[in-house]
Amino acid sequence: MEIAGTDALIMERMTKVISDVLKPGSQPITLDKRFKEDLGADSLDVVSLLMALEEEFHTQISDEEAARFTTVGAAFDYVKVKAAQKAS
Questions:
Q1: Domain presence at residue 36
Q2: Residue 1 pLDDT greater than 50, yes or no
Q3: Spatial contact of 45 and 18, defined as CB atoms under 8 Å apart
Q4: Which one of the listed residues 38, 42, 63, 77 is annotated catalytic?
Q5: Contact between 53 and 75 (Cβ < 8 Å)
Q6: How many domains does the chain have?
């Protein structure tokens, strides 16, 4: 499936990927959650998460862009921008 859809659909897909990779247990996944501090990701988890997001949303994430992904919201904003670019 290509990047497309509403914000809610994108967030739903991201939440599933994050849950599958990080397994945060009962910790809710919200836009303000920090991957390392709040969701318990280590550096290997972050790399695995980036690869899973690339696969899920059929996009490439550069190292420079990935360095800005400290929160779920930052990753969500990136995917949203990519979705808008693909739609136009």
A1: yes
A2: no
A3: no
A4: 42
A5: yes
A6: 1
42 among known catalytic residues: yes
Using a cut of 0.70, tell me whether the model's pTM lies above it: yes
At a CB cut-off of 8 Å and minimum separation 6, what does 68 contact?
74, 78
> Rounded to an integer, what distance in angstroms lies between the CA atom of residue 58 and that of residue 22?
20
Burial class (CB in 10 A: 0-12, 13-18, 19+), 52: middle
pLDDT in tens, 36-53: 999 999 999 999 999 999
Domain membership of residue 31 (yes or no) is: yes
Residue pointed to by tokens 């490439």:
60
- What confidence tens digit (pLDDT) does each residue in 11-26 have? 999 999 999 999 988 8
According to DSSP, the residues that pair with 71 across neighbouring strands are: 34
| Residue ranges making up the domain that contains 22 | 7-87
